[in-house]
Design goal:
about 270 residues, HAD-like_sf, 2 domains, hydrolase, phosphatase activity, Hypothetical Protein, Haloacid Dehalogenase-like Hydrolase, Chain: A, domain 2, Cof, globular, single chain
Length: about 270
């Protein structure tokens, strides 16, 4: 019945250190070797996810920047949606971000992670891939070829940004939280669910054959698209309230996805968790 597994990374497939547990790696490789196909669906940058994929040792489809980019298993970009240049130039302005300087502004270009200041604490999220940022003057950027704008800050500083975006752009943008301190902005026809439907169409596969795992608000339509959605026990309470009928499984910090996959696919070979 199950032919495709679509999974988020942070808070889902990755552990609390934002890395892959060896038990998870072994389980995913075992399924891939048996012919199960995978989609990694995340807000992370493609270059970052490619590094994580290499640690997994499989060749999945990569849905990145919350669906603004889709790469085939051979790394060919097969789907791309950018924010307009004008929107990007506006999204980095102090009138949107706030002039207090507390919010970190990031841009995701095709091959680069651009940031408005040095923030070495963020590199802990990218230990498996080694992906690093480039510091730029945001207001000098032309806005070209940007898949995503990411604001990182205290939730109390992000909420006014979300309100300003709603007021000024309405439904012209897709605005979502990947973590309570991460507000992500893409163009309106982007989402993980749309990207998953694109991959399903390419594979000529029905959603009823797809299992999906997620934990946060940017996973809503990923879970709504898959025929067999599952939510992490550590999921955002707002996601639990939004999708109350989606079954909850284990925690990301206990390799919950791997353990549930072993149940779904009736894997009985011995793999030692560590």
């Amino acid at each position: 019945m199950y032919k495709l597994v679509a999974t988020d990374l942070d808070g889902t497939l990755l552990n609390s250190d934002h890395q892959l547990d060896p038990f998870t790696v072994a389980t995913v490789r075992r399924l891939a070797e048996s012919g199960v196909q995978f989609v990694i669906a995340t807000g992370r940058h493609y270059c970052d996810v490619a590094g994580i994929r290499d640690v997994l040792g499989i060749r999945p489809y990569l849905v990145t920047s919350n669906g603004a980019r889709v790469h085939a298993p051979d790394d060919t970009m097969i789907h791309s949606r950018n924010l307009s240049d004008e929107a990007v130039r506006r999204l980095v302005q102090p009138e949107i971000v706030g002039d207090h300087g507390r919010v970190i502004v990031n841009l995701f270009a095709d091959d680069a992670w651009l940031i408005d200041r040095d923030a070495p604490e963020l590199l802990a999220f990218h230990q498996d891939s080694g992906f690093r940022y480039e510091i730029i003057d945001m207001c000098a950027h032309d806005g070209f070829d940007i898949a995503k704008v990411l604001y990182i800050g205290d939730p109390s500083d992000l909420a006014p940004i979300a309100a300003r975006l709603e007021s000024e752009f309405g439904d012209a943008l897709y605005v979502t939280y990947s973590l309570p301190d991460c507000l992500e902005v893409m163009t309106s026809n982007v989402s993980k669910g749309r990207a998953l439907r694109f991959v399903l169409g390419r594979l000529q596969m029905h959603a009823s054959h797809c299992v999906a795992f997620g934990d946060n608000m940017n996973d809503i339509d990923l879970l709504e698209t898959a025929g067999h959605p599952f939510m992490m026990n550590n999921a955002n309470p707002d996601l639990i309230a939004r999708l109350p009928f989606v079954p909850r499984i284990g925690n990301n910090f206990e390799a919950g996805v791997a353990h549930h996959l072993r149940k779904l696919f009736s894997l009985t070979d011995e793999i030692t968790a560590s």
